Each structure stands twice: as C-alpha cells, then as structure tokens.
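User: Please predict the structure of the protein below. I'd like the answer in structure-token form so I can feed it into my own downstream comparison script.

Assistant: Understood. Taking the following sequence of 328 residues as input:
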Amino acid sequence: MSSRREFITLLGGAAAAWPLAVRAQQPGVPVIGFLHTRSQDPFMPHAVAFPKALNAAGYVEGRNVRIEYRWAQGQYDRLPAMAADLVRRQVAVLVAGGGEPSALAAQAATSTIPIVFVIGSDPVKAGLVASYNRPGGNITGINMLTDTLAAKRLGLLHELVPQAATVGFLWNPRFASAESQLRDVQEAARALALKVHVLPASAEKEIDQAFETIARERILALMLNADPFLDIYRDKIVALASRHAVPTLYQFREHAAAGGLLSYGIDIIDAYHQAAFYVGRILKGDKPSDLPIMQPIKFELVINLRTARALGLDVPPSLLARADEVIE
C-alpha cells in the first residue's frame, strides 16, 4: 500500500517580480541549468520527473524552455567548474540537486542567477539562506530532511533485527553533512544500547572492503549514510548486502525496489516536482527570496518482503502495519 506524499511551504503569500535586469540576460527560450551530484543513469527517473513537472507550470522542454544537465557522478570536486560553466551560459535558473555540495557550488558561482536547491540538511546551518520563511538573496529550495532521519532509521532497523548488538554504518566522510549524521547515529545507538561500527567508503573499492569487514566482524545489520555518492552504487550495495546476508536499511524507495530490505525517507520524485514548481514560479517573475523553503510532512516506509524471506527474517506485524508499501 502507498500513501500520497505531500509538501507544505512554511509561509505563503504573493511574490514580487524578479529584477528586469536579470531576466533581460535571457533572450528567447529560457535555459534551466540542472546541476547534480549523482550520475545520470541511476538518477534518470528523477531527471525525467523534473521536466514532466515543469509541464504543469506551462514549460515544455524543447518548446519554450531548455535544460542543460551537468552530472558530477559522485565526484564533488567537479561541481564548482560545472556550476561556473552554467553561469557563463547565463541560464535563467540554476537547479542544484543531490545535497549541499551542488547547492554550495551554485551559491559560490553566482549571486544574481536564481538558484533552487534540493538538499537533505538544514539550509540555514549550511549558510545557504537567511531563514526558512524568507530565504533572502537569490536562493530557495527544498529541504528533504534526509540528514535528520538517522535516529528513526536506526530504530526501525533495531525493531526488525533486535539480535544485532552492533550495527554497521556505511559512511562517506567526504560528504558535507557526514559528521553530523554520524553523531546522530551514535547518539541514537547509545539510547538503544547498541554499538556502531563505522565503515568508511569514499571510493568504490572501499565499499567492497566495508562488506569484507562486515563478514569478518559478523556485523548483523547495516545502515547507510544519506549520501549521493553511495546512491550511485545502489545496485552494487544491494547485491553485496544480499551476498553477505546482512539486513540493510536505505533512505529511498528505489533501494527497496531494487532488492534492498527496507527504506525510510521521503518520496524523492515529489521533491523534484516541487523544485520544478518553484522554477516555474521564478520563470514567471517570482523572487527566490520570497519563496519559503519547503519541507516534507510525510515519509514513506517501504519493506521488501521477498528480501526479508531470503534473509530468514520475520517482519513484526507492527512494522508491516506501519509500512506505506510492502513489496511481495
């Protein structure tokens, strides 16, 4: 079963027109710059969702708008040059997706071109906006809250695998919010009397090494740092979790649909629908500074029963009853 994902804005109200000087730089068909931390292929469903959602705002790609895509493929150091290139092309709006690295690169590249970000952490703490209600400057966007769900995810994993006294945490220390996520997991683990075995992975070979450690140390459960780099290797991680028979919790439904045990987080496609909605408003004259930061109010728990059976796990009825979707 599933439930419809909903977003709300923290503050409504009309917005004034974006300065004519900025719009005057965009003759003819406006160009949207789409900057993302991930690679194109695994993220294609969401890249498709963005232009489709633009249609509802009256913008059809190839007809009255163009989109220039830039994919960093998990190499965050490539983002500043990509953002600078889009700025040189004088895009009308710059969409920065996949977390803080792309949003910060876009912010550093321009203080005039409107930016709409999709990130998982607090944009005020990241220095992207002045406040949620009135972001200020040329930036607004969506906070998916993925970085704040570590404690909830750990609780769900413990409920499903209560015999796991130690939980592995696959962690990319190079990601902007990695340290804060690790602290949240460790704090939540102390409250549950659990130990956390941190498994660093900033390169593909380190993912393999992490699972070798899981097997050697007999770690009985695993959760992931919410990080675009790890998302790129979704299929690899799901396959390794299956091969080593380690129950693993992920952040997005796509992982569970690909064979992962369970996921807890937002519907990411809805987040990019909302980004497209804001882009449409900006193209029609609204100022980013007047568009409040949006946040999700519903989250989805997805359980893959086929994977649970393969792992020999009995999913508690109370957990099944709370699931938004059960894959059988």
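That's the full token string. The chain has two domains: 7-145+266-296, 147-265+300-327.
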